[in-house]
Amino acid sequence: xxxxxxxxxxxxxxxxxxxxxxxxxxAFPNDFRRDIVALELDNQFGDKDREQLDSIGHVAxxxxxxxxxxxxxxxIQDETGPIQLYLNNKTLSEDQAAELKLLxxxxxxxxxxxxxxxxxxxxxxxxxxxxxxxKSLRPLPDKFKGLTDTEVRYRQRxxxxxxxxxxxxxxxxxxxxxxxxxxxxxxxxxxxxxxxxMHLIPGGATARPFVTHHNALDxxxxxxxxPELFLKRLVVGGFERVFEINRSFRNEGLSTRHNPExxxxxxxQAYADYEDLMDLTEDLFRRLxxxxxxxxxxxxxxxxxxxxxxxxxxxxxxxILKYCPGVSADDLxxxxxxxxxxxxxxxxxxxxxxxxxxVMEIFEEKVEHQLDRPTFITSYxxxxxxxxxxxxxxxxxxxxxxxxxxxxxxxxxxxxxxxAEDQAERFRAQAQRKDAGDHEAMHYDDDYxxxxxYGMPPTAGEGIGVDRLVMxxxxxxxxxxxxxxxxxxxxxxx
Length: 494
What we know:
The protein is of the alpha+beta class. It folds into 2 domains: 7-140, CATH 2.40.50.140; 163-324 and 367-482, BirA Bifunctional Protein, domain 2 (2-Layer Sandwich), CATH 3.30.930. It has helices at 7-24, 38-45, 50-56, 94-100, 150-155, 157-163, 165-187, 228-236, 274-293, 316-323, 335-345, 355-366, 420-435, 446-454, 466-474; strands spanning 59-70, 73-78, 81-86, 108-117, 123-134, 191-192, 198-199, 211-214, 219-223, 241-249, 261-270, 297-300, 303-306, 312-315, 375-378, 400-405, 408-415, 459-465. Strands 6-10-11-18-17-16-15-14 form an 8-stranded mixed β-sheet, with helices on both faces. A hairpin with a 2-residue loop joins strand 1 and strand 2. Helix 10 packs across helix 12 and helix 13 runs antiparallel to helix 14.
């Protein structure tokens, strides 16, 4: 019995078995070819009864990892699901029967045999011959307890994928979401492009960048925090609808919503404004839900969302008035009143903040988490929107929105600032904030100003966090659940 052996002893036994195989033949053959996978097997024969299968006598060649062993029955798993095998010592050759004794859970095998149905009605392959393709030297986690340690799941994602069907499903859905996004924007006349991941000046967002060094140029460079300014350069150049599904990097903290590197969709449309993009975003989310999930009604962390219904639309100030009892419009009219309100709420502010920044601190601390149903928050202060177009009627706010679902930001879009002189002024204000110690403030990007001076048509642009989108559509509580290899603190030996 091996149940009471520790992992080191089990590994030693498996190495002995591998040595026995090496002595007899090539231990890692690469000439077995399957002709059907689990899903196809079920689609073709799942509705056939025992007599029908016997009359068909279909011979199948299958392959996968051994995940269960029970007497003469083995279950292997391929990418599409499980397949049950029946191996009878009496019908196997002497060499095959000997090799059968060398099998362990986790081994990868190929097998050939007739498809039949057992007395219990289980679709099964009666194996005439099999081949051990890869010996698993490490034992899989206990089949009853499974792999429940989240730390191990994230660090050893390959093991998580072997053991947990839900994890495999999450990443299958993620792939389908990304594929849908590409099709959607292609159908709407957008061209997919690629922009640099190493920048001389980090721009496109207010975030702290990662710093690297280019040896040949002997030059400090930054990993991209957003592709925005390069995509808008393309709009200047005449590509009127562009999008990029990009990896971006921000040197910020870890949380259930944040990872230092993440995937973002950004797209830009000339001759459109932020209201056009709100309409497009509603349509995008609805179609995504129907195509990927099968219904516009989804559930996330216990809350139900019907994406077929119109999304709410509220300004930043109106949202504060709605969700913060006792607050009046006068409290948001000047800096002194806004600071007093922040202090009343226990929201930290400092002398460098203008009224716009203070209002946003209040919104983020007291309101954002209360926005459960899909809501577009609009009219963001100009102070916190250095790349967005000022509102024609009120220059203190911008034509910008964020989409909030379940208290989480899902998208950020705005009518783009195409006034080169206004943009230069705002870059200078950001540079002053950076000099004052704000590590997330933007640099002054002289080349981008030059591009704007050649003229950018009226344009709207938007960014959607793909990781958070996947979290929403797979009911995943943490961003680490939807990243195949999330950032982890290093493990140190004692």
